[in-house]
Amino acid sequence: METVSYVFMIIGGLFFLLGGLGVLRMPDVFNRIQAGTKATTLGAFSLLIGVGIANPDWLLKVILIIVFIALSNPIGSSVLAKAAYRSEPLPSNLVQDDLKGHNGGEDNE
Predict the structure, then answer these.
(1) Boundaries of domain holding 27
(2) Residue-wise DSSP of the chain
(3) Which of 45, 62, 75, 87 could hold 52 in an S-S bridge, CB 3.0 to 4.6 Å?
(4) Residue-wise pLDDT tens digits, 35-44
(5) Domain count, the chain
(6) Is residue 99 part of a domain?
(7) What's the pTM value of the predicted model, to 2 decimals?
């Protein structure tokens, strides 16, 4: 079981690494938010599962942390994206703007 927990922890670390590289390499704020959220969520899940397998006494706490992350990360990334949409000029490669006219009376053009 110890080997399985180490494998999960290594996978989690690799996803954290890929998420960090994605934040550095992506061209605009919306892609950075996606890279930071998706990869690090999976990395945290893998790392926590590895810790839960290594220490079965902590398994209930690990499951609660995973549930909290699963609920809070999408909300946090949506809030960051909405704030970035309202404060920055939109990317030049934006194909469709579904929020135009729905952001509190302001139009970003």
Answers:
(1) 2-87
(2) -HHHHHHHHHHHHHHHHHHHHHHHH-SSHHHHHHHHHHHHHHHHHHHHHHHHHH-GGGHHHHHHHHHHHHHHHHHHHHHHHHHHHHHSPPPTT----TTTT-BTTB---
(3) 62
(4) 889 888 999 9
(5) 1
(6) no
(7) 0.77
